[in-house]
Amino acid sequence: MKMQNAAKERCLLKNGSRIENFNQRLKSLVGEDFSRFRLWASAKAVIAAALVAINLGF
């Protein structure tokens, strides 16, 4: 079990900058308005649209 956890941690450390970059882009596309959502469905729709935009290169 400990070996599996070590491999996962190494993978996260190796790709940490990519993960942070993705999170930053997602936050910039979703914006500050995200905290004003009252319904989880509308929040999911905005996150899905941002993920599509990131994959398209926006």
Describe the structure.
78% of the residues lie in helices and 0% in strands. With 58 residues, it is an all-alpha fold. 0% of the residues are buried.
Structure summarized in a few sentences:
The chain has 58 residues and is mainly α. It is built from three helices and no strands.
List the helices and strands and how they pair.
Layout: H1 2-14, H2 16-30, H3 40-56
Helix pairs in contact: 2-3
Order of helices and strands: HHH
Low-pLDDT runs: none
- The portion of residues forming beta strands comes to under 5%
What is the number of beta strands? 0
Q: Note the overall shape.
A: elongated
Give keywords.
mainly alpha; elongated
